[in-house]
Amino acid sequence: MPHSTYLPEKMGSASVTPGGSFEAGSFQEFTLTYTAGYFGIDDTGSLKIVHRFASDMGKPQFDKPDAANYVTAEATNGAVLHIEYDMKR
Questions:
Q1: Where is pLDDT greater, at 80 or 53?
Q2: Which pLDDT belongs to residue 43?
Q3: Residue 25 neighbours by CB under 8 Å, 6+ apart
């Protein structure tokens, strides 16, 4: 269900790959792809990704690519991105 019904054909979209079922407690790698819509994202805008609080997911970290729970973000237009994790914002 969309968050808003305002001009849905002009809004962005998101997808997660791979799809399917996964064994609980297993380590997996996912790619979330967000495609901005007609309006784009403002220069001071943001994209907030949330997950269920009650989970066994590890705390995301951004400094050690070979360690567990590594997260990275990139923009296809070369924009400089700031990523952070806030458990309860």
A1: 80
A2: 86
A3: 56
